[in-house]
Amino acid sequence: MVRALRATRLAAHLLRGLATVALIYPLVGDARRLALKQRWSRRLLDILGIRLDAALGGVAPGSLIVANHISWVDVFVINAARPVAFVAKADVRQWPLVGWLAARTDTVFLRRGSRGHAKIVNAEIDALLNAGKDVAIFPEGTTTNGSCLLGFHGALLQPAVETGRPVQPLALAYETPDGRRSLAPAYVGDTSLGQCLATMLGERSIVARLRPTPPLTTPGRERRELARAAHDAIALSLGLPPASSRPERSVGLPAALPSGAAPTGSPSPAPAD
């Protein structure tokens, strides 16, 4: 009964978000859009039974936020705490409805494996950072269940190096109310979006914890060094092994979906209400 009620509320909330992006976004400025996105994301977490535990007040505006990646809901958790622009793989733009919403809610799209397009995307991120807007990336390139931390791509940290803006590591974890790791939000392997959502709707309560580590200054540093430092800072915060000796992988694309996942599991930012 509780699961069915939550599912009904979720469907209505998604429709409100769609209407808001279509009808209200074109009439308001950036500050209002960010506020709407944050409010919509907070209501979504409430519907899903997720309690947000975050303290991001000290994060400097115009930061490149680097976070570990567990679930499709990560985007909304971060937006609920601090609305930001996200980087997503380019094919998300072609997904029905989802691509349309993503394009209108501060998503920067990157074609996988295209160095030329990566330069264009980096220029877009440069512009956002220089305008004092936060940009978030998931540099693992895929999701985990939260029990480990994969190596970080470094390519998308280049805009922070070029602009001199800080890199802000952000440790994300999902827990039960008594402090144990919750696997309910994990969107990994062969798990479908529907299965993941059903599992989350069946949980009484989930706590999403966001913990920033000290920001990393970028002048005079290379992206590989920053990627390793961000990785180790997040690993330390989560109590996971560091991996400073791991080599940087070649493609800097944060993907929000496991390989082969259905397109309904979008990594795009939330619509607003």
TrEMBL record:
This protein's record includes keyword Acyltransferase: yes
GO molecular function: acyltransferase activity
GO annotation, cellular component aspect: membrane
Start and end residues of each Phospholipid/glycerol acyltransferase domain: 63-175
Region: Disordered, residue numbers: 238-273
A Pfam family that the UniProt record links to this protein: Acyltransferase
Keywords: Acyltransferase, Lipid metabolism, Membrane, Transferase, Transmembrane, Transmembrane helix
InterPro entries according to UniProt: Plipid/glycerol_acylTrfase
Main localization category: membrane
Residue intervals passing through the bilayer: none
UniProt name for this protein: 1-acyl-sn-glycerol-3-phosphate acyltransferase
